[in-house]
Each structure stands twice: as structure tokens, then as C-alpha cells.
Amino acid sequence: MKASLPRVAYFPDSFREVNGVAHTSRHFEAFARRRNLPFLCVHAGERGPAVTEDGGVWTLELPRGALSFALEKDLRFDPAFLRHIPFVGEVMERFRPDLVHVTGPSEVGALGAGLALHLEVPLAASWHTNVHEYASRRANWLLRRLPPGPSAATGLTIQNAAMVIAAGFYRAADLVYAPNLELCAMLERWTGRPTRLMPRGVDAELFNPGKRTRALHESRMVLGFVGRLSVEKNITQLVAVQDELQRTGVRNFRFVIVGHGAEEAWLRERLHGADFTGVLHGEELARAYADMDLFVFPSHTDTFGNVVLEALASGVPAIVTRDGGPKTIVHDGETGRVVPDEDFASAIAGVLADGERHAAMRQAARAYALTASWDAVFEGVYAGYESILPKTRAWAARESSPPGRRA
User: Fold this and answer.
1) 191 and 250: one domain?
2) 345-384 burial by CB neighbour count: b if 16+ within 10 A, else e?
3) Phi and psi dihedrals of 195, rounded to 5?
4) 3-state class of 222 per DSSP?
5) At residue 92, what are phi and psi to the nearest 5 degrees?
6) Nearest 5°: CA angle at 16, between 137 and 291?
7) Residue 192 shares a structural domain with residue 307
């Protein structure tokens, strides 16, 4: 990175919650702390409003109010969040950002985008969630009541409408980031904005095969899933996998499910003998990954799949679908399998039946994960910032301008 580092005001959709945006955002702030970068992180939470300063890194946590409502178990939306504008504006005037970076069209993202426009600084926006696909999946309660033809057409209409709305938000940015090349191309088409790759990293010291507590060659294999237990994660496929394996005579397995969500009760009722751990963090999560034999992740909507990369770092091959971001980090036949839904069970059975192949996949998974560092990810983000920053930083130009003029 260049010596003249920009002052970045970062507005993530979520920070303390358990999801990919929060996970990436916490690592981004940690990167700024390690490098002592001028970095302001503005996010929603239970505390505040208050600013803390630690070296170059400032943190501003803003409480959601009584009007906020739940989107997930630990994720809320506050329609009155813009009431924080005066206070955040004062902090921004003190911090003097060279650019604003938002992660999506949430109330926090809208606040950040609006302040970037007001302060006349460049805006970067990163795409973390396929909101258009989520909207369609969340409408399943309606779609399954319609005949197949109208159901498909209505689902596509919902998906396209959500994409139009999301693209309108990202079109306000000077630069867009996306976690895989397919999404980069799609967002450039929809927004007309330059789009750069922003993949994800992994803490390969925390997530590693050495955390395993089970013997490597136990007769009963562990199939693992980590993530939100919700309809957009295609969790019904886990039950289909169980039923198909048992139908074909494969019974030496059990599921370990890490996470929570709206579909947990449904899954508990149908996934027989599974161990539901709830949400895990840190060393507990690392041990849970390392004790798995295969990671089963049937989501079609994930833009990258942080949990897949964590599984690979733990020496656990992954079985993923042909849609979405996880297929870009799983090399079919080397670090796992990339297959359609109907082939999940046969792919799992094939890997588990061949001990030598399974062992080779475990080694390849770990080797691949070692190439994915968070520092490299965020160094790439800062390199992208240079493409939208004026030669003279916004605040410096503003201070040197005659009274009454904006730079």
C-alpha cells in the first residue's frame, strides 16, 4: 500500500452479529488496527451512541430504537436510524474521511451513502449478500401456493424487482466490490460502475486440522454444516441427503449443525440423531470444524462462503452446489465436490468410501486455505480506493479553498 493512506469511514450492515458481513467487517477493523490505519467504523449495536479512539482506529456504535424489527434472530432493521445523522455528521467532521465505504442497502448503508454525498467524498460499496435471490427465497410461502408456471414467473419477477432496487443503491457508488468474478460482471452490467474483486480470507492459525479431538478413522463419519438455519441456505437439502444416504444403505454418519435460525425447529424434527450446537465462536468453533469429516453446504445464494473456507482451512473437504460463490473456492475432485442438489448424497458417499481419496482432499483443502489471507484481501481493497480518490484529498482541498467554496 502507498505511503499516503486514505482516511476511510466504513459503514457495515452488521458487525456484532453472526453472518458473513459482520465476519468480514470485524476482520477489516482488525486489519486497520494491525496497520494503525486512519479508519472509522460506524455500525449498529446495543451501546452508545459513543465514539472510542484506539490509535488510528475510531469506532462509533449506534443503538437501534424502539421501532426496529427483527430480520433474523440476531439481525434487526431500524427505520428511524437516520435520527443519528447529526451526531454521526459531527464525528465525520472530526475524523475528516477521504472516502466512505458501505456494505449494502441497510439503514447503516443509507446513512453512510448520504453522508458521503453531503461531504462530497468518494463512495465505495461492497456487495456481500445476494439480496435479490434472498427476496425470492423468502417468498416461498407464496410461491408454493401457485401452480408451477405462475410460481416460477412470480419468483423471477420478485427477484428482478429486488435486483433493480439493490442496483439503484450501488449505482450511487464510485466503485463497487464483489466477492467473485461472476458477481463482478453482473454488477458492472446492472450498475454501470467499475467493479473490483474482494474475496474473503481465513484465519488459518485458528482454523486448522490440529484442533481435531476425534480420531481420524472412526467408523461413524461426521457431516457438518455451519451457518444460518434459514430457507435461503437451502437447508431442506440436508434432510434430503440424510434420507438418500440411508435409502442406499449408508448409515455410518451423523450430522453436526452449528448455527441458529428460523428453520431450526423444522430441521431438528427431521434430521435424526443430529447434534445441534447453536452458535459457536473461537476455539469451540475451530474444534467443531476440525472434528468434521465432510462439510456439507447446499446454499445456492451465498456470494462467497466464509464458512466453506474455514472448513477447508480445518482440513475438511466441502460439498457445495454449482450456484453461488462457494463453487469458486472448492476445486471439484481436489478440495471437495461441486455438484447439483440431486448428486449430494452420492458425492458424499463416494468420498467417504475412499479413504485414500478423502485423505488427499483433506491435505489439498488445507493447502488451498493457506493461500487466502485477510491481509491480502484488504490490501487489494485499499489498492482499489486509489482509483477513486482525487489527487488532492477531499479535506485538504476543502481547507485550502477560498471561503464559501467546496473543493
Assistant:
1) no
2) bbbbbebbeeeeebeebbebbbebbeebebeebbeebbeb
3) -130, 130
4) strand
5) -65, -40
6) 75
7) no
One domain, residues 384 and 352? no
Structural domains of the chain, count: 2
Supply φ then ψ for residue 355, to 5 degrees: -60, -40
At residue 114, the 3 state secondary structure works out as helix
Q: How far is CA 149 from CA 135, 152, 155, 160, 213, in A?
A: 19, 5, 10, 17, 50
Q: Say which residue the cell 444403505 belongs to.
A: 249
Counted residue by residue, the chain has a size of 407
Cα angle 376, 12, 231; round to 5: 100
Q: Are residues 240 and 350 in the same domain?
A: yes
Q: Over the stretch 8-44, which tens digit does the pLDDT of each residue have?
A: 999 999 998 888 899 999 999 999 999 999 999 999 9
User: pLDDT, tens digit, for every residue of 66-110?
Assistant: 787 777 666 787 888 989 999 999 999 999 999 999 999 889 999
355 and 282 share one domain? yes
Return the CATH number at 153.
3.40.50.2000
Q: Which domain holds residue 324?
A: 209-369
